[in-house]
Amino acid sequence: MALLILGHPDIEKSLANRTIIEELKSSHPALEIRNLSMLYPDYNINAVAEQEALLRHDVVIFQYPLYWYSMPAILKHWFDVVFEYQFAYGSQGDKLKDKYFIPSFTVGAPEREYNAVGEHHFRVHEFCKNLEQTAYYTGMKYVDPIYFHGTSVNAGYTEESIKAKAKIHALALAEKLTEFQN
């Protein structure tokens, strides 16, 4: 069984992330989903409950929208609180060792803007080094991120195209889950 940490601050307003979650729920009903904004609207994260959830699973997906080249504040805070010394790292902090770490996110802007000459100056993978290092430092098995561009209706993308891309994204995640759970 796998765990999905949902770090979207308002999933009901996100067609892309909501579609991904709905698709995963239908294809993998045993998937445990922890919606951080619903569980902790006051950001008072229960480290013990979250650590227990992590311990129950060998595959952990972190689902979120890319905000200002990073993760939303609630997900960053979750890492700060949950990945404690002697749990996630330290001389006895091997509780996450060999678990799969899968970043899964959506990017509002088009792909053509994420390169050396584009508006955002870097490729998306370059914004994931902190995730890769976190996985490495905690002994987790980092999986290259699964993501897609063009999730903003405000940027001219249609709801139909966003949903179609989100379904493809969910299928890619489902394939990873099947691969790692066999």
TrEMBL record:
Residues in Flavodoxin-like fold domain copies: 3-166
Keywords, alphabetical: Oxidoreductase
Gene3D superfamilies: 3.40.50.360
Family matches, as PANTHER family: GLUTATHIONE-REGULATED POTASSIUM-EFFLUX SYSTEM ANCILLARY PROTEIN KEFG (PTHR47307)
Protein name: NADPH-quinone reductase
Species assigned in the record: Chryseobacterium camelliae
